[in-house]
């Protein structure tokens, strides 16, 4: 038992460092997967592709599994084996995110991602990136099989990842057909449409999935946590509304990117609120200028947002959402679960980037 004791001390030290280390172990295992006979070229391709697509983000989703599991266990330090499993599930979420982003960037014809060219834009990659996305998704099944097969919750884990992937892909479909280039039609945009896109495209995999992984790892039955799922989805929607707001009102040097929701014809919370509050002449300004790359058109939309006082509308929404979420969290019977939910909420409440 002494060895495990030493490991737990290490695991309690710097979660981020331990988490980062485990990535390399998982990648090594995938590159030595006996189910496929790698050629030197394919081995090198996968090695480079996984580094390029999985790394480079902030790992918030992955680290949330570890943080949530610690809060559920009421422990600052985890035994080495538990720390490893929590980090492994965290990395499965990061792999899922990579799979979504690789394909998302192709569909959106994007140029950069995480400060570098999108994977499909890299010379010699191109449409091979479609197959790479499929491989990334399959890596998750390989990782889960290797480390969780035989655990009582293995089937629930597979089911959870399948369920969340289905919801996210369906949300992406909704987003693509609503904001379709060829047929720009602002009359399609309303708060119900916005909410549905965000709920399915973002909230489930970014907010619910990390906590659901931690609950399964703790031996809990997800069927008993319907209320927790609802709270986390609400939190995910609130997070995306913040994102929409920061895209327009956040300082680029602070949020790390220049917002382009107006130019990109996004079904953003701000445009939905503007449509709801505009009279006919104001609607005309939106219809004529929204989705145009011309800076003068963008400025007309921003001026209309100012005229409609959307900043105040957002601040009101933020404070109402917070009060509602806190009340729902405090109604949860389990204090450790409340702690998990509050830690998520406090990470995002009033964030500036």
From TrEMBL:
Any single biological process term in GO: farnesyl diphosphate biosynthetic process
S-adenosyl-L-methionine in keyword set: no
Tagged with keyword Aminoacyl-tRNA synthetase: no
Superkingdom of origin: Eukaryota
MF term (GO), any: metal ion binding
Keywords, comma-separated and alphabetical: Isoprene biosynthesis, Magnesium, Metal-binding, Transferase
One term under GO cellular component: cytoplasm
Cofactor list: Mg(2+)
SUPFAM superfamilies xref list: Terpenoid synthases
Pfam families (UniProt xref): polyprenyl_synt
Membership in a protein family: Belongs to the FPP/GGPP synthase family.
Name of the featured protein: Farnesyl pyrophosphate synthase
